[in-house]
Amino acid sequence: MDEAIFFQDANFKGKYLDMRVSGLNDAPTSVFMCNDCISSFKIGPYVKAHLCKNAHCAGDSEWDGAVDIIGPYSINNLEDINDWISHIKISTYSPFGDQFVQAFSLPEFNVGHAGLFPPG
């Protein structure tokens, strides 16, 4: 599975944007849904999602400008970044070659601030 699905409403409801690594893999959310309106999402296995606060990921190098998540991962109700995502980029990763530690700032693996860190 090379897809990630982003939903306008909590609990995986409402309008959605279905992205695939082999197809649509880099897009501002305003083109397909609305700007800053994502409330839940599902990321498939071997998919890395780069979720940006600003269109075209401007300022994504700032600590609060982007969130990176590796799948499989799903969250039915975003907390700190609810209605925050303006641009999404997805790509594949290999668990056998690419190694990351996924860190979350909220309990129970909820996305507040999250990041991927290489070993070391």
Overview of the structural elements:
The protein has 120 residues and is mostly beta strands. The chain has strands at residues 3-9, 13-20, 26-28, 40-43, 47-52, 66-70, 73-75, 87-92, 101-104, 114-117. It contains no helices and ten strands. The strands form three sheets. A four-stranded antiparallel β-sheet has the order 2-1-4-7, with no helix packed on it. Strands 3-8-5-6 form a four-stranded antiparallel β-sheet, with no helix packed on it. The chain is globular. The model has no long low-confidence stretch (mean pLDDT 82).
- Total beta strand runs: 10
**Order of strands across the widest beta sheet?**
2-1-4-7
In CATH terms, the superfamily is: Crystallins
Proportion in helices = under 10%
CATH top level label: Mainly Beta
Uncertain regions spanning at least 5 consecutive residues:
none
What is the structural class? Answer: mainly beta
**What count of domains describes the coordinates?**
1
The largest sheet, given as strand count, sense and whether it forms a barrel, is: 4 strands, antiparallel
Number of helices: 0
CATH topology-level fold name: Gamma-B Crystallin, domain 1
Q: What's the average pLDDT?
A: 82
Integer-rounded radius of gyration: 13 Å
Please provide a brief summary of the model:
With 120 residues, the chain is mainly beta. The chain contains no helices and 10 strands.
Break the fold down into its secondary structure elements and pairings.
Layout: E1 3-9, E2 13-20, E3 26-28, E4 40-43, E5 47-52, E6 66-70, E7 73-75, E8 87-92, E9 101-104, E10 114-117
Antiparallel strand pairs: 1-2, 1-4, 3-8, 4-7, 5-6, 5-8, 9-10
